[in-house]
Amino acid sequence: xxxxxxxxxxxxxxxxxxxxxxxxxxxxxxxxxxxxxxxxxxxxxxxxxxxxxxxxxxxxxxxxxxxxxxxxxxxxxxxxxxxxxxxxxxxxxxxxxxxxxxxxxxxxxxxxxxxxxxxxxxxxxxxxxxxxxxxxxxxxxxxxxxxxxxxxxxxxxxxxxxxxxxxxxxxxxxxxxxxxxxxxxxxxxxxxxxxxxxxxxxxxxxxxxxxxxxxxxxxxxxxxxxxxxxxxxxxxxxxxxxxxxxxxxxxxxxxxxxxxxxxxxxxxxxxxxxxxxxxxxxxxxxxxxxxxxxxxxxxxxxxxxxxxxxxxxxxxxxxxxxxxxxxxxxxxxxxxxxxxxxxxxxxxxxxxxxxxxxxxxxxxxxxxxxxxxxxxxxxxxxxxxxxxxxxxxxxxxxxxxxxxxxxxxxxxxxxxxxxxxxxxxx
Length: 426
Prior knowledge:
- The chain is α+β, with helices and mostly antiparallel strands.
- Helices cover 29% and strands 17% of the residues.
- The chain has 2 domains: 30-99 and 235-421, DD-peptidase/beta-lactamase superfamily (Beta-lactamase), CATH 3.40.710; 106-232, DD-peptidase/beta-lactamase superfamily (Beta-lactamase, 3-Layer(aba) Sandwich).
- Helix 2 (39-54) packs antiparallel against helix 11, helix 3 (100-113) runs parallel beside helix 7 (217-229) and helix 3 (100-113) packs across helix 8 (233-245).
- The two termini are 34 Å apart.
């Protein structure tokens, strides 16, 4: 009797030991059934995304699904360069635009964990131009500039409630004169600090804390990281996040030896149908200057290039409560704070049943979206039509990279979600 009890206790100990030591290990490919997904059902996903290519809706894409710490699905479709007949590969490099924001938000939390700042601090404590800010308010047929009701905090920036847009609201002509509009920074021949100093003196769209305004918030956070850490943003992210996680293909500007792996950006060809190559370099809606640009402006809001595997490692770290492959990037409590809703559904204007945390959208009532999913999932996307999400309930990481701008209402994101969840069989 004692031996049976001892054997059971030993087995329990081994299961706990193994599960604890598997958490945070390198992502490896396994048969989908080993992590509760169906090979047969995943064929629906493959067929659908091949159809987008065949119908000239997408040039190509890479999809990675990881569940329970292992890769269940990792496939590429179409071409990374149609004109040169280059097939899309799993290691293709993509412009991830606003998916940069999540990494920079994690960087802020790292500095708080090191005692270098508090997210309740006013931004003006670190960047003088933000000590006193202004807001453009309607005034008859025009607008007036008034003093902000309170200082902007770091939390305001993390949750996009600082009132700072992309320079197209009231007072847009002042933003245009300052040459600060839109999210694209790769062509700027000045460091990010110079841009943000000018930005701090422009009139914002709303008072701090009053509403969700998507804009330059995370670019400001990137500049703040440089001030507090004493490092450039690219060096800080490399030392604290990219190298520890093994994200070796994530860069602000692409090393010349990797330029052939950078996927081409396409746009819908409205006149002819199908796709056309976006202008080169072409700024926001073109190929960008990520290879041959000035390499001076590190945009915390939209500057990074990455691969599906690299980004999956970052997301797996978040799912693992701050650790991956034996390296701890964040504490469990910081991850919990980042992935909790801070603003409430009423303030987030884009999708029902969704709030916003510190750098991520957060599902609070997934049923209101009429989509498959779970409460508590968090994610975001990028201007070149990439997207991602993490579902802690299902232990699921989803990364979808493509290069399409504008998307003209393409339904691939919703199809990806439906076809991912329908493949879960446990």
